[in-house]
Amino acid sequence: MSIVLIIIHIMVCIALIMIVLLQTGKGADMGAAFGGGSSQTLFGSTGASTFLSKATTGAAIIFMVTSLGLAYLSSHRTAGESVVSDSPAPIESPAQPAPATPPATGGAETPPAKQSE
Questions:
Q1: What is the rounded CA–CA span in Å between residue 111 and residue 93?
Q2: I need a labelling partner for 74 at 20 to 30 A (CA). Which of 59, 64, 83, 98 fits?
Q3: Dihedral class, residue 37 (left if φ above 0, else alpha if ψ from -120 to 50, else beta)
């Protein structure tokens, strides 16, 4: 169920992005709006809604519904459905002792003893 909802959600996301990018902005006629008689269009008198604005509204509603559905499904997941609980426990290897190393002298070496002649 969640896989189908995720696929629908991704398809609606891509469609919503494409629809919004295809639309022209409301400020496209801003230069003509202040100089001409069409200042009504800048401040909200848009007239009939276009197909793209209706498609944006529909895609946004579907996007919100799928988002809420995915949030509900993820919050009501039982312990048996968890990815972590389905994986087998890691096999622990017995601890091996560290190899014996000579004690460090701190970097200072003692000079070899001189032989008397």
A1: 45
A2: 59
A3: alpha
List the chain domain ranges.
1-25+51-77
pLDDT tens, residue by residue, 80-96: 555 555 566 677 777 77
Write a three-state SS string for 33-90: HHHCCCHHHHCCCCCCCCHHHHHHHHHHHHHHHHHHHHHHHHHCCCHHHCHHHHCCCC
The pair of structure tokens assigned to 10 is: 């991704």
Residues 6 or more apart from 34 whose CB is under 8 A from it?
Answer: 42
**The pair of three-digit structure tokens given for residue 88, joined into one six-digit string:** 């087998």
Give which of 48, 57, 45 is closest to 19, Cα–Cα.
Answer: 57
Higher pLDDT, 30 or 22: 22
CB-CB neighbours of 59 under 10 Å? 20
